Amino acid sequence: MELIYAAAVGILAGSGVWLILRPRTFQVIMGLTLVSYAVNLFIFGMGRLTEGRPPIIDAAVAPDPAAMADPLPQALVLTAIVIGFATTALFLVVLLASRGLTGTDHVDGRESES
Description:
Elements: H1 2-20, H2 25-45, H3 71-102
Helix pairs in contact: 1-2, 2-3
C-alpha cells in the first residue's frame, strides 16, 4: 500500500514539474495543480495510512492512541484543497487577462515557431 501511495505522489510531482517547465501558461497552471495534489497526498500520508481506525479519541473504542488515525493532516489537506481551488481560479483569471493584453499565452512572451 505504501509503495503504491509513494509512486502516486512521485508520478504526480514529476508530471507537475514537467508541466511547470512547459512554455504555455495553461500547461504551467496544470503543472502547479498537479504539484499541489502531490503535496496534499504527501501531507495526508504523514497522518499514517490506516484503515478502519477512528480519527477522534474515544476510550471505549480505541484506548490505545497508536490505534487511531491522526486528524491534523486530514484538516490540513482539506484546507489546502480549498486554497488550491481559489489559487487555480485566480491563475485562470490572470491567464485570460494576460492572453487578452498580449495576444499570446507563452510564459516567456515569444510565439512558437510552427
